[in-house]
Amino acid sequence: MRVLLDTSLLISNFYSPKPTTSATGEVLRVAFNGGFTLLFVEGVAEELYRKLRERPDLAARTPLSDAEGLIADMRAIAEIMPRLPEPHPPIGRDRNDD
To answer: What tens digit of pLDDT does each residue of 17-62 get?
Structure first.
């Protein structure tokens, strides 16, 4: 099995009172223990860092070093997925979320 976690899931995990036992935390734990292949796209890291800069509420809860550590840990075990060539075909209503 291969799993891709998007930025929204990572952000929601930072808001969790118990991030290691939240649903996303459990998925990450299984991935780190070799239970499946974690997929990683650089755009997820870029979006997470951008959200940390743009959202003071998120930045107050999540030190940049925590986000960088999580991304580094994910990169270390993940299968890195290549970027899709631009332009992307429109898929959903939110063009920024395709």
So the answer is: 999 899 999 999 999 999 999 999 999 999 999 999 999 999 999 9
50, 27, 47, 49: which is closest to 39 by C-alpha?
Answer: 27
Residues whose CB falls within 8 Å of the CB of residue 40, separated by 6 or more in sequence, listed in order: 4, 74, 75, 78, 79, 80, 81
Residues 58, 46: Cα–Cα separation, whole Å: 15
H helix count then E strand count, the chain: 5, 3
Torsion of CA 49, 69, 97, 34, to 10 degrees: 170
